[in-house]
Amino acid sequence: MKPETTKEHEQRVEEQKYFYTMFDEMWGGGEVLPHEVQYSLCAELEEIERERITNALKLASGNQTKAALSLDIGRTALIAKMKKYKLCS
User: In the chain, fewer beta carbons within 10 Å around the N or the C end?
Assistant: First the structure.
């Protein structure tokens, strides 16, 4: 790979400035939400997963194999998730 010339470097820097400006115009200017209002996708997904596992176990009367089948996951995956969410009895 040949080294970048001064002209190529300047052109690359100008392109970056252009894209940063364009990005800022399209999506910038907004303020970050306060911490108590921020949305956490991971936390919501974990809550949903925990709820679904709990319900599946209740519907299967605690039978892990039946609960795993209803969730369309393997039994060992279910057990691992139960440990993760401290749902083991």
Answer: N
